[in-house]
Model the fold of this input.
Amino acid sequence: MPDTSPLAVCVGEGLVSFVPATAAPLEDARTFHRSLAGAEWNTAIALASAGIRTAVVSRVGDDGFGRFLTAELRRHEVDDSAVEVDGELPTGLYVKELSPRPDGSIDGSMHYYRSGSAASAMSPATLAAPPASALLAQSALVHTSGITPALSDSARAAQDALFDASRGERMLSFDVNWRPALWRGREAEGRAIIADYVRRADVVFCTRPDAEAVFGTAEPDRLRELFPEPRYLLATSPVGAVAFDAAERTDSRSLDVPVVESIGAGDAFAAGFLAGVLSGLSLTGSLARAHRIATRALVSTRDHID
Done:
């Protein structure tokens, strides 16, 4: 019998991440570990780990890195049938640089090599292709972020088409994920574009630093005043989250666990919260699930949970 459980579809770029084996400047790093990365792909893997039927819509190059990424999706039981393979453009990648902190954790910074990638050529045609169209038609939730519209004009057109087609048909989830390097020279335009997506989404995730950079305030109540439209609005920080469900407000604390490195924890948090909502949990229950899954991303230098 076909699986009729709620389907979550994540739309965005997958990347190959190279993570140094030791925390040191890149010029001193000799050994790197290869891993899957990309905000929406990290979220997809975490959703699948939470028992949610999950698929990804994206594009990769016809290269070893693209084949590695799709194999990783399948290994984590994420549907990759709507990941297009581009015969000319390459799969994007980034290199993580690790620096030790005094508290024993590791600070990660990212160096991207994604310009002209296969995923940057996403367009409305990507969504209209039969595999993606079929998945979107049966989805209960679509998740994307502020990274996709920064990749290219065609990728922004794809995200616009996704929002237009999904409104009222399925839950729209949007993670701000402000990436200044992708908006360099057009920051004001980027802020306006992201604010528009926030107003059109049903669920919005935003870190306090991103909120300050994009909206000029990190105060949760002020953010809610600025953006009353989404049903769920979550402002997150390393110490916890403030979540709104319509007029209801709930504060929650992060779980006290040893932190190795935090990149990817926000994607896991989003997945946990969305899994809670799709499973019918309360706001408090969904937050608790979000914090539990986020801890699984804090214990390694990978961006996704295993």
